[in-house]
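stage 2 :: seqdesign
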């Protein structure tokens, strides 16, 4: 049997499909399983032990994309896939799934596109307090699979040994000792609805170092937020006395495998509800996640519950969760209402829990 899984993008959404990959392998142990994805998120599934192949879909601009999709669909048809699971549900993914010609095509009930599938699974449009992994798993459940279990079916992203070696080299260049408590603080997000105020990030970074001078805080950000990250670093250093300022670090840009390796090396990851937070969920590193317009119930790390994690949320608001199109109150109160002191308390709690569990294992 030949099976194709389709999830073209985005980073976090691709991460959330990785438990399904494991589930498909368990449900169909002898199948040939391939995964179709666009290049930016492809590192998430490259090296996945449950896949036989990763197929990268090119995304040319304009009308050229239509010709590329036809070419891709015909190539998939020649490959003779028996079953396609469209975990994406977008127009391009639906179209490619139909073009594959697979005998069985499973997808979500989407207005105007359900006819492209041979089996349709309901997907309510309202924002529910239900984890994204469970939403993705609905397609596999339609094929008789048992419900997912975070401990058995965690998020997965294989660490790239070469990326790990590069990270170790960069940390040595920053004079970070191998055993030093390293905190990765991701200070950017894909849209303003998930971006915590820069001054809050600076106050948090300074507070982490002030609480334990042995700690080092590495600030990470997407390419478009590089200058903002540098400004946050400068502001954080300005809040610290001489001798501690050098504990706030910027280590340059990281590609996705390097970011995964950096987080895997850290004592703690802190970030908003964005792709890097979900990559952190593929490691055993403790996590503190900041959730403004979104819900931790939907996007918190899906993995062994024994790994320390804490979600920081603003509490009940009549406008939360929202679809992140327009801020109804106009002041992004779901984010600005999360105080640095609140996050710092969560950080200290998670680090203390992690240290206690590590000591108990020794």
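stage 2 :: out
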């Amino acid at each position: 049997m030949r099976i194709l899984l389709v999830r073209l993008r985005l980073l976090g959404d691709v991460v959330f499909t990785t438990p399904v990959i494991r589930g498909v392998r368990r449900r169909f142990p002898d199948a040939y399983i391939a995964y179709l994805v666009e290049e930016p998120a492809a590192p998430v599934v490259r090296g996945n032990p449950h896949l036989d192949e990763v197929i990268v879909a090119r995304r040319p601009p304009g009308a050229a994309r239509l010709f590329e999709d036809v070419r891709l669909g015909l190539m998939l048809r020649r490959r003779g896939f028996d079953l396609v699971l469209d975990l994406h549900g977008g127009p391009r993914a639906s179209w490619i799934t139909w073009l594959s010609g697979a005998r069985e095509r499973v997808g979500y009930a989407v207005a105007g596109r359900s006819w492209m599938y041979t089996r349709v699974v309901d997907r309510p449009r309202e924002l529910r307090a239900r984890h994204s992994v469970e939403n993705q798993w609905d397609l596999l459940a339609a094929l008789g699979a048992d419900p997912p279990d975070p401990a058995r079916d965690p998020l997965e992203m294989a660490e790239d040994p070469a990326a790990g070696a590069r990270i170790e080299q960069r940390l040595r260049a920053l004079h970070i000792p191998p055993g030093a408590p390293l905190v990765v603080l991701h200070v950017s997000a894909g849209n303003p609805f998930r971006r915590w105020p820069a001054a809050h990030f600076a106050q948090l970074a300074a507070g982490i170092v002030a609480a334990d001078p042995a700690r080092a805080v590495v600030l990470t950000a997407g390419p478009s937020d590089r200058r903002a990250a540098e400004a946050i670093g400068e502001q954080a250093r300005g809040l610290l006395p001489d001798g501690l300022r050098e504990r706030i670090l910027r280590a340059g840009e990281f590609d996705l495998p390097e970011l995964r390796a950096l987080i895997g090396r850290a004592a703690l990851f802190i970030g908003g509800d964005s792709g890097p937070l979900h990559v952190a969920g593929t490691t055993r590193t403790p996590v503190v996640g900041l959730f403004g317009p979104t819900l931790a119930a939907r996007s918190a790390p899906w993995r062994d519950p024994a790994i320390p994690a804490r979600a920081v949320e603003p509490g009940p608001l009549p406008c939360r969760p929202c679809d992140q199109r327009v801020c109804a109150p106009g002041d992004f109160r779901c984010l600005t209402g999360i105080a640095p002191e609140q996050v710092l308390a969560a950080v200290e709690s998670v680090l203390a829990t992690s240290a206690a569990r590590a000591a108990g294992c020794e």
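stage 3 :: structure notes
- The two ends are 46 Å apart (CA to CA).
- DSSP finds 14 helices and twelve strands in the chain.
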